[in-house]
């Protein structure tokens, strides 16, 4: 094998390794380049704060705004004030919030994580799934995160999935409230039981009371003798 042949093969192998490494790094970056929501689960009839976050712009262009469309089934929407964003609220004919636009005071670089949040209230008739289509505006271009998975389709296979929140049964939240109340009652009972069942503490308290009374009697007798 000639020297030139070895050099050519080594070069091709090096390019292959570099290309594979670049692809391995690019695929996770592309998969993570979306607008996510947290938490991704709420109970029907409950209230919660949803945070929409992103870590990439449009083709590496800084993000300037997020317009989030509200799904049907929300009883209330209250965007969170944030000094990094100007907030514009749109309402439908029914008076409910239909969309919220967060405009960045300064464009968010692609190597920084950006996030906005809002409080939402659900009613008992809220559907099992709430999708929040998002339009991400950038200095150059925009991305519409509006795709929804069909039945049996993997949401992770979508190129531009919309953030989705799953709605669970209302009984889960009610049980949680009852559990908290029961825990509080048990804590009060434990405190009372501890106070009664501590004989040393009771004895010391009684002894202190007797000693104080005896000192008072001695002081009175001494005063009478002087008089």
From TrEMBL:
Name the Gene3D superfamilies for this protein. Uncharacterised protein YcnI-like PF07987, DUF1775
Ranges of residues in domain YncI copper-binding: 34-167
Q: What is this protein called?
A: YcnI family protein
* Residue segments, region Disordered: 173-192
Transmembrane residues, as ranges? 200-223
Give the range the annotation lists for the signal sequence: 1-26
Keywords from the named record: Membrane, Signal, Transmembrane, Transmembrane helix
Q: Which superkingdom, per the lineage?
A: Bacteria
Alphabetical list of CDD domains matching this protein:
YcnI_like
Is the keyword Membrane assigned to this protein?
yes
Pfam families in the cross-refs: DUF1775 (PF07987)
Specify whether Ion transport is a keyword of the entry.
no
